[in-house]
Amino acid sequence: MEHTFSFLAEAERVATETRDPVKAMVPLRKLSLDDFGLFMISLPNKRYPALSNVLPNMASNHIQETWTGASGVELLKQTLAFTRIVENMVVRHTGRTLHDASILDFGCGYGRILRMMYYYSDPEKIWGVDAWDKSLATCKEVRLLGNFAQSDRVPINLPVGDTKFDVAFAFSVFTHLAPSAAIACLNAVREHMVDGAVFILTIRPIEFWPYIDAARKTKHQSTLMQAHRSSGVAYLPHGGVEGETYGDTSLTFDFFKGHERWQFLGYDRSVFDTFQTSVILEAK
What we know:
Blueprint: H1 5-18, H2 21-28, H3 33-42, H4 49-54, H5 61-68, H6 72-94, E1 103-106, E2 126-130, H7 133-141, E3 147-150, E4 165-170, H8 179-190, E5 193-203, H9 208-216, H10 221-231, E6 233-237, E7 247-251, H11 254-257, E8 262-269, E9 277-283
Parallel strand pairs: 1-2, 1-4, 2-3, 4-5
Antiparallel strand pairs: 5-9, 6-7, 8-9
Helix pairs in contact: 1-2, 3-6, 9-10
């Protein structure tokens, strides 16, 4: 929209003169979050060659749709909804903002949410960690900015050195982990959080099981809903080598309440993404 043109022109000028993505982001952060997101998913953009040269490309529509089931503006709506949850929960529970925070995207995938974090913090303070080498290869291919590292599928620690984070998030990660793997990930992330830091992660609600049965024409919902209600977790492993740690999972809030190093603060969710409920944890 026309109201964005002056900010984008300023950012293009800075990118042309400095070839520095960090300096170019300063005027881009004058945009609204939604306009920032729309611009970031437009890259490379022929109208802004200097910005296209210093900032990362958006992943292809094929990757977006294969990995997340949607692409373009429709997917951006979900991305922005979760980004706002992260920002709101950090402010609400810590009294601090995301600006200049050290941020961990745990299970970063191709970096669709990580790139929204540039709105708040410089790339040197942002880490993307994923257990899948193809995720990190895709991040590299589109020239994502920040720090990236490959974790174990069931991590004991994270390969981020002595970095401690103010904020961490995990979108659609714990929705797929076996209970033992989920606990391992909670422990590994906690090792790299400052005391009082906030971890926002998404889980599946119990209503996911009738939905997925209908989509896949399977008949698992009765058993899995009973497990969810009785034990706080239901897990349906995928076929293949990762079945013991990776599948489809639903969790209750009680799953997190007994952890000795995390405090359950509450939850949030968006109607843009019905089956992703955000759990808010505080490092204690």
